[in-house]
Amino acid sequence: MKQSNKNRKFGTAALYCRLSRDDNLDTESNSISNQKKILQKAAKEKCYPDTLFFVDDGISGTTDDERDDFQRILSDIKRGRINCVIVKDLARSFRNYSDQGYYLDDWFPRYNIRFISLFRQSPDGYKDPKICGVLRSPSRAS
To answer: How, if at all, do strands 50-57 and 84-87 pair?
Structure first.
């Protein structure tokens, strides 16, 4: 018998927010606050009640080495603390295709990590339109 998604829990999701330019606020950027709200709602809808926020505010996405919270995500994945990464769109995570390809096609699948981009069709979405916005490693069941 198929279990309803409403009763399933999939583990801990990293909710990643990034903004390349600070909007001159002493507190968190407006864009970051909005991203957090969107991501938290999506995580709950996708059966990830356990979430951790990772925020790189005012940092360019052109290099992953300079983004401290992105590095923390990778570290937590290696330690088995996270099994899903959710972002508003791919541009929040990757600003160049080589990094995007490396993480989505190699690094995340190697650790069996589900990657969800909410507002941009995934590169493999043409293969199965039902999963647009969700990237899964080939070994994961639907």
So the answer is: unpaired
Q: For residues 15 and 58, which has the higher predicted lDDT (pLDDT)? A: 15
- C-alpha span between 64 and 99 (Å, rounded): 8
Reading the block at residue 107, the tokens are: 């690094």
CA distance 80 to 75: 9
Structure tokens at 39: 């991501």
Structure tokens, 106 = 């190699």
User: Cα(15)–Cα(85) distance, rounded to whole angstroms?
Assistant: 6
Q: In degrees rounded to 5, what are phi and psi of residue 6?
A: -65, -25
The whole-angstrom separation of Cα 5 and Cα 68 is: 33
The 10s digit of each residue's pLDDT in 38-62 is 999 999 999 999 999 999 988 777 7
DSSP letter (8 states) at residue 9: -
112, 68 contact by CB (below 8 A):
no
